[in-house]
Design goal:
With about 300 residues, the chain is an alpha+beta fold. About 25% of the residues are buried. The strands form 2 sheets. It has a 4-stranded antiparallel beta sheet with strand order 1-2-6-5, with no helix packed on it. A two-stranded antiparallel ribbon has the order 3-4. The chain is built from 8 helices and 6 strands. The chain is about 45% helix and about 5% strand. Helix 2 (about 145-165) packs antiparallel against helix 8 and helix 3 packs across helix 6 (about 240-255). It has 2 domains: about 1-145, no CATH class; about 145-305. It has helices at about 60-90, 145-165, 175-200, 215-230, 230-235, 240-255, 265-270, 285-305; strands spanning about 15-20, 25-30, 40, 50, 120, 130. It is elongated and about 105 Å long.
Length: about 300
């Protein structure tokens, strides 16, 4: 005899349900009712594709089993307990007495709590809301890489750092410079993290060497020419490419030379020889423009890689 018992799985405070990949065993969460109307699920880490009923976590399985035991065996054992009680009553006063002692038949449910994850995402392609460990992952519904969403958020954070300057007076020049340097460094670090996610997604188009490919605009451009037939300047424009090159070099000297312009900087940034030996002046408007260009470059690059 087949017995069907409907069970609703508890969700977290965001309405998300835990999933565990049957292949790599990694944990993630999704919000049912968002995304595509599909019965399958795709692991955001390893890409395993299977029906949703293959993605139950061990805690969920134990919870469902405890519900089944309580719903099916509970009533039957209660009947058995009542039968023993009736037998006890029927033997009272007789030569042989039958005594039944019970401590109560109880089947506690194995409740559980979904794990906290580091990154909550709404897929900008299919609308699925999901959460993962780490930062970058693919959508469990449509497989689109979430890298651009995370990159855009990171650039927004870097731009918000610039707003802090409005609260400073002129006497706090060193703090102003530190904020500008931090915004510049944060933008390029976000671009580097974005690039690593793209390299994992498109290993045939973006080489593994050099490791700092997305911190070196010229190397990135050469890589694109060799694998895809187009340079970075072909994708974003020559003027934008030169502007990007300059600010990547500015970040480099602030990271490695206290911001002082050296021969390497002069060789890579035409027209900067008059600054040799001096500290390159950080400008809020210029850095804001650079962050916008960085954001635009990320979008153009991802679209280009998706479509070739």
């Amino acid at each position: 005899m087949k017995i069907e018992i409907p069970v609703t799985l508890p969700t977290d405070e965001h309405g998300m349900t835990g999933r565990e990949c049957p292949s790599c065993k990694k944990y993630f969460k999704i919000k049912f009712g968002t995304g595509l109307p599909t019965s399958h699920c795709i692991c955001p880490y390893c890409g395993e594709i299977s029906d949703h009923n293959q993605f139950f976590t061990q805690a969920q399985i134990e919870y469902v089993q405890s519900v089944a035991v309580k719903e099916v065996l509970g009533p039957e054992l209660k009947k058995l307990e009542r039968s023993f009680k009736e037998l006890e009553r029927s033997t009272r006063g007789g030569f042989i007495q039958f005594k039944v002692k019970t401590s109560g038949l109880n089947f506690p449910l194995k409740y559980y709590q979904e794990k906290e994850l580091e990154t909550h995402i709404t897929c900008d392609s299919c609308g699925l809301e999901f959460a993962v460990f780490g930062v970058f992952a693919s959508c469990p519904d449509c497989t689109k890489l979430n890298a651009l969403v995370i990159f855009n958020k990171s650039i927004d954070v870097a731009k918000k750092r610039l707003i802090l300057i409005d609260s400073l007076d002129k006497s706090e020049a060193s703090l102003r410079e530190a904020i500008l340097e931090d915004a510049l460094s944060g933008g390029i670090s976000a671009f580097d993290g974005f690039g690593k996610a793209l390299r994992n997604k498109y290993p045939d188009k973006l080489s593994s060497r050099p490791r700092n490919l997305f911190q070196n605009v010229a190397a990135l451009s050469d890589c694109l020419i060799n694998s895809c037939g187009k340079s970075l300047s072909d994708l974003i424009g020559e003027g934008e490419y030169e502007f990007m090159t300059k600010w990547f070099q500015v970040r480099h000297i602030y990271e490695h030379n206290m911001g002082v312009v050296d021969d390497n900087f002069v060789n890579k940034v035409p027209g900067s020889s008059h600054l040799k030996g001096k500290k390159y002046p950080l400008d809020r408007t210029e850095i804001g423009k650079f962050l916008d260009e960085l954001n635009k470059t990320g979008s153009v690059l991802m679209k280009f890689l998706e479509n070739i």
